[in-house]
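Hey all, sorry for the wall of text incoming. These are the three entities for the joint prediction.
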Amino acid sequence: MKYWLMKSEPKEYSIDDLMRDRIQFWGDIRNYQVRNMLRDEFGKGDLALFYHSSAGKETGVVGLMEVVGEAYPDPAQFASKNKYYDPKSQKDNPRWLGVEVRFKQKFQRLVSLSELRTEEKLSSMRLLQKGNRLSILAVTPTEFAYICKLGGRAG
DNA sequence: GCCAACGTTGGC
DNA sequence: GCCAACGTTGGC
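and here's what came out:
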């Protein structure tokens, strides 16, 4: 089982939206590094931290979700009127993937980015490194458990 | 709104 | 293959 951190701007899609929907297709990702992670490493039962990005003081980890199954082609890439339409992607060789996630829990409190930066134990986290811009990042089991503890929930 | 730090595109 | 120009992400 693997552990991830997945970013979403809450004004686009928040933990409360996922709590309501229970299951959601996590798509619209147009970055090859992230695509390769989805394709090669994501698996059923993986756990992910839900991260609110570009949210001012509310930026940080807000809860947990579970990967429902293997990644599959993102339908938005074939929809010509979609913002995420990719005319260069072919149906028999899709370029972009997404994955379904299931709501697991919302943390009792926000674990903010500024708080994460103060934690010595998390100082090597990919999320906190300069220049990180990937919307999905691998998280170590130790980091995952520690952030769950900060959020007030057992991992 | 600004801007650093990327990633992508396309001319050569 | 190089690299300048451009676009995007995301913290501040």
